[in-house]
Amino acid sequence: MRADRSRWEARYADPARSAGGAPSNWLARHLPGHAVGRALDLACGDGRNALYLARQGLQVDAIDLAFAGLAHLRAAAPASGRSINTVQADLEHFRLPEDRYAVVVNIRYLQRSLFPAIRRAVIPGGIVVFETFLREQARLGHPKNPAFLLEPGELAREFAAFDVLALEEGLYDDGGPPAHLARVVARRRLS
Question: How far is CA 106 from CA 49, 78, 125, 130, 165, in A?
């Protein structure tokens, strides 16, 4: 845990780095029309997706392990016109609130033990926007650890009790290096 936190702190500690980069294309493509209420951005880094959520009018909670990334987000938040609640926490030990969020976002982070908590955190009728790497990504580079790589069909299985609004798996070039990704937008059923 300490080595992992140190690595992320070093990544975000660069004073020239600033938050506010473009949000995930998957999130930007699928959020419009769902932007009402509270949102949660898990493993938010320096906040590119949290800032996007705030600009869409959502009340945002952003959680990350790295204080330095959250500091960039806090500095950039006033430009979004909304405040963003930042929480420094290790998601392996942090309990997510239940039935609180209209939107839960998990972009390029995989902690399988969080799947049940993510499903419980979204309110009935709310959505989960999830995107992370498939096992084939190991051939291209980072990440290589199988613990951080999804199996084909895994997201569909994890959100089988939700209404799946969009689902993709494959090699994508979203403006950066190509990556093998699995992505889902899933709505929690009302009953």
Answer: 9, 23, 18, 5, 16
Alpha-carbon distances, residue 9 vs 47, 67, 108 (angstroms) = 14, 7, 17
- The label of the residue with tokens 């938010």 reads 44
Strands of 33-100, DSSP E: 38-42, 59-64, 84-88
Average pLDDT over residues 130-144: 89
Radius of gyration in angstroms for the set of CA atoms belonging to the chain, rounded to a whole number: 16
Q: Is the pLDDT of residue 75 over 90?
A: no
Q: Residue with structure tokens 């290790």?
A: 90
CA dist 187 and 111 (Å) reads 20
Place of tokens 């049940």: 116
What pLDDT shows up at residue 29?
93
Sheet holding 179-187, edge to edge: 84-88, 59-64, 38-42, 101-107, 122-133, 179-187, 163-172
Instruction: Please give the full DSSP string across 83-122, using - where no structure is assigned.
Output: -EEEEE--TTTPPPPSS-EEEEEEES---GGGHHHHHHHE
Most confidently modeled of 5-9, 15-19, 118-122, 169-173?
Answer: 118-122
Task: Tell me whether the omega of the peptide bond preceding residue 143 falls within 30 degrees of 0, making it cis.
Answer: yes
Q: What is the pTM of this model?
A: 0.89
